[in-house]
Design goal:
By secondary structure, the chain is an alpha+beta fold. The protein has helices at about 5-25, 35-55, 125-135, 140-150, and strands spanning about 60-65, 70-75, 80-85, 90-95, 105-110, 115-120, 155-160. The protein contains 4 helices and 7 strands, in the order H-H-E-E-E-E-E-E-H-H-E.
Length: about 160
């Protein structure tokens, strides 16, 4: 039972107890069917939760790139895509959240200045993309280091296309 914490097991046990009591009580009070079904559904959800979490495909939350484009699969039906030749600026947005959450967001903008792709720095696949980004000519690693150390809401430009 490595998938369940102690409190999960207690909750599941209580849910099973209520479900069984409901099944016994239905004979005397048929209206208990709804409460019994409710507790059964709760137990079912709790028991299946770790397995459903593993079943949810990680492919929906990832970053991919190739020689043509960068794609962010952030949960939407279609990925956000920007071609390498469309990227005019790459910026890093930081927040006050700190390391407890997604405190860094990468913004890939086109020539009009419109952000086309936003990628959380914690996205699966981003580390490989970062290594590729750092190979871009004139990538500003100093600005990146400043962004990584920032604990406030700020914007750091780490790369701009040469004019």
């Amino acid at each position: 039972m490595k998938h369940y914490s102690g409190s999960d097991m207690l909750t599941i046990g209580i849910g099973i107890a209520f479900t069984l009591m409901g099944l016994v009580g239905i004979r005397q009070e048929p209206s208990l069917i709804w409460a019994t079904l409710f507790f059964f559904a709760c137990v079912l959800i709790l028991v299946l939760q770790p397995f459903l979490a593993r079943w949810r495909p990680a492919r929906y939350l990832r970053v991919e790139y190739d020689v043509e484009a960068i794609r962010n699969y952030g949960g939407a039906a279609l990925p956000a895509v920007i071609r390498w030749d469309e990227i005019d600026e790459i910026a890093v947005l930081t927040s006050e959240i700190g390391p407890a959450g997604d405190d860094v967001v990468w913004v890939f903008s086109n020539a009009s200045g419109s952000p086309v792709v936003l990628i959380a720095g914690t996205s699966p696949g981003f580390a490989a993309l970062l290594a590729e980004l750092q190979r871009l000519p004139n990538f500003d690693n100093e600005a990146l280091l400043m962004a990584m150390g920032s604990l406030k809401l700020a914007r750091f430009i780490v790369w701009r296309r040469a004019m």
